[in-house]
Amino acid sequence: MKSRFVDATGRANPPTEDSPHGPTPVTRYDVLIVGGGHGGAQAAIALRQHGFTGTIAIISSEDDLPYERPPLSKDYLARKRDFARILIRPISFWTERHVDMLLGTRVVTVDPNRHRLVTHRGEKFGYDRLIWAAGGTPRRLSCDGYELTGIHTVRSRTDVDRIKVELETTERVAVIGGGYIGLEAAAVLTGLGQRVTVLEAQDRVLARVAAEPLSRFYEAEHRAHGVDIRLSIQVQCIEGVGGRMNAVRLTNGNSIPCDLAIVGIGIVPAVDPLLRAGADGDNGVLVDEHCRTTLPDIFAVGDCAAHRNDFADGVTVRLESVQNAVDQAIVAAKAIVGGAGGYRSVPSFWSDQYDLKLRTVGLSLGYDATVIRGDPETRSFSVIYLRRGRVIALDSVNSVKDFAQGRALVAARLIADPATLADSTTPLKQLLPAHMPTPI
User: Fold this and answer.
1) pLDDT tens figures, 272-283
2) Do 140-265 and 355-431 show the same overall fold?
């Protein structure tokens, strides 16, 4: 099997077959992976680790090798890590394992009957199995002025490189959206000397993912660092002069002067080609426990894959996390090589802001009670989420032990006494039944 590397111009000699439908050759692989993020990279890695010897290619819309996404809003934006240090693997790793990279390539149509897809350049690729790991695209503001220069998202290396260039001549930044991406960016930009205003439509930051105590804690922390946080705010339009933005106009009539804006209001899952091809799904493409879509021989993993999750009380969800992308990629790879086992992972997430390390395990959807463990004033505490008396999730701030030991409680869906959970002198592992293994 010859190693091939395909660059953004498509210069290479991958295996081809004559097309019975015209002169355009069809390049065929045993496994095609669409998406060059964590899920796509891990799928290729896992296939080789589990003994798959067929041909593999990763198709990515970006011009770069697969790289880590979390540092984009943290160390990479802060210039603490250069791009080479956030690569998931160097080029030598991929060539040694005979994984082709088709970079700068966007898939526009999928034909599940012929097991083929077509790119934006009209190239045709055939596959025996297809793994869709395309992630999503940043959700856009639906207001006038969004086309002005100076408005950015944080989804790719290119996005952040543009921001870093503009930061050299800016002093005031508006961050639209008080989720993790927005708050992480606000923390970094404040550290770089920018005057930052966070605009959040809800009545608290992190409203979609965390309980009010955690929201209020992070609001206080950001304000203590000089961030202007404005809640229950709606953006009316972006104002500008000469094609460049210079303010965000709010529906209450106020105007926020700024030289640059970062929009972090979620993503739209990149699944249109699969949905047009007939796959089940809406907000993402639906997959089963083995990450199979309803289309033959097509799998989906990561941010774009909607699945029934036991830790969400059986609700169908999409999980936007590195851990989920990696775990689902391994499940899909095992299914392709004939291995057993479905997706059963306990969800986990993380966020670094200033010197605060937030680690989350489980899903707090539908919680009906919370327990504060420790004292937020010490900047080391946890918020434990309960549903019908069972521990379903845990947010730990600067508390590694709570996070590590809390994972077992969530996995066991343990019924626990709130008073005992709140007692930070009692290790969480002591709440586990004697027959259960204690976490490391």
Assistant:
1) 999 999 999 999
2) no
